[in-house]
Design brief:
Helix 1 packs parallel to helix 8, helix 3 runs parallel beside helix 5 and helix 7 packs antiparallel against helix 8. The radius of gyration is 23 Å and the shape is globular. The chain has nine helices and no strands. The chain is mainly α. It has one domain.
Length: 261
């Protein structure tokens, strides 16, 4: 067995263990999209590995490109889920359309990132392949931004390293940073032994991410803290005055109570 094959087997085993912990710890109830993404990652890795062993390199390349689209869309959904889950303590005070606002903000961030993500796409690829890789790199940078925002505002968001949301975001962020470095290196490399070494290092970083998630999900999550006063004030402002007025009016006694019979 080669080192590359050992890495692939380790990745699939790690995905299985993560899935087991997601079910065992009932994390799938809190982060269903992330749990579904891990199931997708495992199944797609198994299929791609089988295609790589049984078919030509050209067919494998096409299969790999075709899975980038749904994979990136699922990751985009996971980012929305993470942002929405962070606001879990104050969901009752938020307006109904908040999740759509979050989705729009993340989509807007992706649109801003899009022109810069093209810099790491190898020019030697076909136009079709460049588009897929471009999309993949945009989502990878989004993962890094999501991690940096959550880590940077962890105190305001009342989350710490033992919270599932930050654990998932940090794992995504680490692997995304490494993937971007690999993409930049590939754009300056041709096919050869060094190219394969970089690919193996990328798989190893993914295995490291899975190990981090296994260790994190094996421990009990700490109880979520209340938001800081600054964050509570921001959320109240987001909720608008309409809901507050409606609650206040519902507590005002009628001026002309009905006479008793």
């Amino acid at each position: 067995m080669t080192f590359a094959h050992a890495l692939v087997y380790s990745a699939m085993l790690g995905e299985l263990v993560v899935l087991f912990l997601l079910v065992r710890r009932k994390i799938w109830k809190v982060l269903p999209l992330f749990s579904f993404y891990m199931l997708w990652a495992f199944l797609s890795d198994v299929v791609l590995y089988y295609v790589q062993l049984k078919f030509s390199q050209g067919i494998y390349a096409k299969a790999y490109l075709y899975q980038i689209g749904p994979d990136s869309l699922l990751q985009f959904g996971v980012l929305i889920e993470l942002a929405w889950s962070v606001l879990r303590p104050s969901k009752a005070s938020l307006p109904r359309g908040t999740i759509y606002v979050l989705a729009f903000l993340i989509l807007l961030t992706g649109a801003i990132i899009w022109p810069f993500a093209n810099l790491a796409v190898p020019a030697t690829y076909s136009k079709h392949a460049q588009l897929f890789i471009h999309f993949q790199q945009t989502v990878a940078i989004l993962r890094v931004v999501c991690f940096l925002v959550m880590a940077g505002f962890s105190q305001i968001l009342a989350i710490g390293w033992k919270d599932r949301e930050l654990q998932v975001a940090s794992g995504f962020g680490f692997y995304a940073i490494f993937s971007l470095i690999v993409a930049v290196l590939h754009s300056h490399q041709t096919e050869g032994l060094q190219y394969l070494w970089v690919d193996e290092a990328n798989i190893a970083s993914y295995v490291g991410t899975l190990v981090y998630w296994v260790l994190s999900f094996s421990t009990k999550e700490q109880e979520r803290r209340e938001f800081s006063p600054q964050m509570q004030q921001i959320l109240v402002q987001m909720g608008g005055g309409a809901r507050t007025s409606r609650i206040s009016l519902s507590n005002v006694p009628p001026q002309h109570p009905r006479k008793r019979d």
